[in-house]
Amino acid sequence: MTHGHNVLLDTSAVIDLAEINGEDVAAKVGCGIADLRPGISSVTLAELAAGPHATDDPAVRAVRQALLQWAESTFDPLPFDTDAARAYGVIYAAVVAAGRKPRKRLADLLIASVAAANNLPLVTRNADDFAGLDSQLSVIPV
After folding, report:
1. Please, which residues bridge with residue 124 across strands?
2. How far apart (Å, rounded) are the C-alpha atoms in residues 26 and 6?
């Protein structure tokens, strides 16, 4: 783990970060709050970059743009690299085996692949998006 992170935040966790109790996450990871080192993936940054363009409401667009700029200045995203691409194949198969449609949650599964490739638990506000992946990664619902 050369990146120094001990959890990966999915997009929902980044969006709702102010509402997440860091002490609870740290306890679930097995560390103290001072040792919690969250990261994000490049896929999350892509989702955040799309956010301002997904609304016609100028006020919502401004909030989404501010969140994107904050995330860009706060995190050095983990890439969707070759290891993540390999993990995606296994995660895709696990989703199919669970009777779910992998294409409906493409971005979520790409984020899960980055977490799995980096051996990081995934912090999410939408644990149901990662149902059936227990054998591939640890999901921390918050």
Report:
1. 141
2. 9
**Strands of the sheet with 7-9, listed across from one edge:** 38-39, 7-9, 122-124, 139-141
Tokens of 140: 């921390």
Please give the structure tokens belonging to residue 89: 């194949």
Q: What is the pLDDT of residues 115-138, one digit of tens each?
A: 999 999 999 999 999 988 999 999
d(CA 100, CA 77): 28
From its phi and psi, is residue 99 left (phi > 0), alpha (psi between -120 and 50) or beta? left
- Token digits for 13? 């966790």
Q: Tens of pLDDT along 21-34?
A: 999 999 999 999 99
- Could you count the other beta carbons within 10 Å of the beta carbon of residue 116? 24
User: For residue 16, which of 120, 124, 128 has the smallest C-alpha distance?
Assistant: 124
